[in-house]
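Two folds, back to back.
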Amino acid sequence: MNSTEHPRALLAALYRAAVQGAAPFPRTRDAVHAWFAARPSLPADAPVYVIALGKAAPAMMAGALDALRQLQRTAEGGLVVAAHEPKRGEVGSDLPPHIPLMVGDHPVPGPASLDAADALEDLAHRIDDGSIVLVLLSGGTTSLCAAPIATLSQAVGDADRAQSHVANLAETLLESGLAIHEMNAIRRRVLRWGAGRLAVSLVQHGAEHVPVFAISDVIGDDPAVIGSGPCSPDPLDDATFLALLDAHEMRARVERVMGTVLGLEGAGHPPGVPPRDHPAFARVGYTLVARNADAVQALASEARALGIAQVVVQQAPLEGDAAALGDQLARLAVQAAPNVQGDTLVVCGGEPVVHLRDTTDRAMSRSDDESLDVAWSDEPLRGGRMQVLALAAALALEEAASHGDARAWKITVMAAGTDGRDGPTDAAGAIVDAAVPALARRAGRIPEDDLSTGRSWFPLDVADALLRPGPTGTNVMDVVALLIRA
């Protein structure tokens, strides 16, 4: 059976290859082993602690512990803060009992995130002088161990109340359409472990070396952005930070108490961060373990191995509005279809954003004689940036096909997050073609309205287009593949 005759199965297999290309266990194991091997003068009896934070934390911890075993070193203690507890048999499911695993809240921090941040503080207090503290970072860290800075807790009375304001800020930023580097630039100012504060705490409590191993979930792989930079200094001075807030009209968007803490009210100043020349940062080393380009290249390599005639990798990262990108990519694929020689795959990666429109205004704008099959006021928002991109692509393909362009039927699009979870849903993304919108309409959906009101999951679900791999244990943003059949 020729796999290219079954586009959905082929694209699902290519997605799995992309995820494997950024597998946390082997990459972390090899990076930790190389770090120690490059420093033979390190004391053999120096205590070692391991902290793993983020969606890939369990597998990264397992990789680091395996490297330590090979080096005949042991971890005195540590902590894992993850988005889920690995199932039996998954990598990272059999961690030693002296390294606890906690599950934080994501994408909006809550009580579990506060508990995880408190556990991280407790661990910092137990570190021995002269220790080596391995910090393993991956996507989701910002939310999973989010906790308010003391200034915010004092402003509202206690950390529990302050945590609700941290959650409200996260929701506001997620709905704003800001890029991840902009969101984290704002969040790290009010987070207990953001903007290098974790590194400072570890060094103050005795850490001699703080090597950081990161799986990047951000475009540009900036250490200050990954996980909101728990071990990296904040690159923005106060004036630039305030300018960022004003550029996105945060004075009108955030709660008053948060605005005051951020320095937006009166003659206030933004929360202080450790200076870039703080001596703690001299003890921090940084190693990039995996990034989006690794997943994209792994997907492309697997496509070539499966016999795809032409594989084109777009070097520019996907940025900007997800719906606009989906529409644009689909139209470009339709234009390219007549010129392909053999099956062709276009691969790209990155992290678009979603801009939500007001659902009330959307419903009000419909003419009186239009049937309103969906209860806009009652139905929850559900979807993610990859589902938005996929649905927009499907609508563009359908439009081209409806105008008699048979090339549109040759194209199948896969768009998915490498972590296995696109937004707060059960899907990584979707695999779509020109038939998906019609299938959704037969089930009572209006895909155009779903796209514009943040409900992309619903039409993709009823059209059986969602890609549901479950949590993958890694997170290097998103991958998109467009298959054009000859």
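---
second:
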Amino acid sequence: MKILNTTIIFFSIIIVLYYAKFLLLPLFLSIFLYIIINSLSKDLVLFTKNKFFKINDIFSFIIILIGICVFSYFSLKLLKINLTKVINDSDQYQNNLNDLVVLFQSTFINFSVNENLFNKINVISLFSNILNFVKSFAGNFSLVLIYLIFIVMEQKFFHIKVNLILKKSNTKKIISKINNDIYSYFRIKTLTSLLTGFSTFLILFIIGNDLSLTFAIFAFFLNFIPYIGSLLAVIFPTFFSAIQFMNLSEPLITFTTLILSQILIGNFLETKLMGKTLNISPLALLIFLSMMGKLWGIVGMFLSVPLLVILIIVLNNVKETKKIAIFLSEKGID
């Protein structure tokens, strides 16, 4: 009976996530953005506590919010300019791609199997779709900011209502842990993503890649997607380098240097900073990542880690589902 109820609840949640994504997706993004801004603003208050100038909570929150908005605006603006410039020169890239197909055909006998795949790639259409995605993301981000404003307005009363509803100290502890774990994750991930984006831009700019700025911004966001994001942040610039330069040296240098950058920042720095903050099974994360990608697309993959963190914390604190939490964790849960 318990297995049946759990199965019904699981599929009910999947259905709700899929059909209510137009509402839940920007809502979840705004909630996580609020947690990040609120936590960063507290850090700013503590940083200025013993300084000549002191900042209160409200002013600190406004500074962080404006900073994120300005960063997002200029990133999207620069991304649009860079993509538009490449679209204007797309005829040259298309000719280079066609020449590459001919070159591989003459070099590899069995390449004709994949010939149709490469011939279907239209550079103008490809980059136009990316540009449309950026514009769509900018429109959705505006909706996220609207949700965020209402969350901030509800902040004071939300704490009062939570205290009245949740009288059990254990439940309050769960909410506090969710807030702390998500903040720790996003704070470290944002730092390493900025470093990844900057190193990607520096490497590609030195090589002379025409989309160095675009790939740097993509690398920043893709770094939030486990496993797949880091791989795509290397493959896309390497493939474009092959089209742009029409030789082996630049793509090889691009691939090697970006891989080294990903290893240094992701495998060493991020692992050292993250420590034991997260305790998630890699297999469970990969499955959940695929599921969220199917349900909510790229944004779902972006939110997969914090959502799985919340799920594990909640399951671990419910007696009937504690075993599921242990299964989803990497090293088990006390």
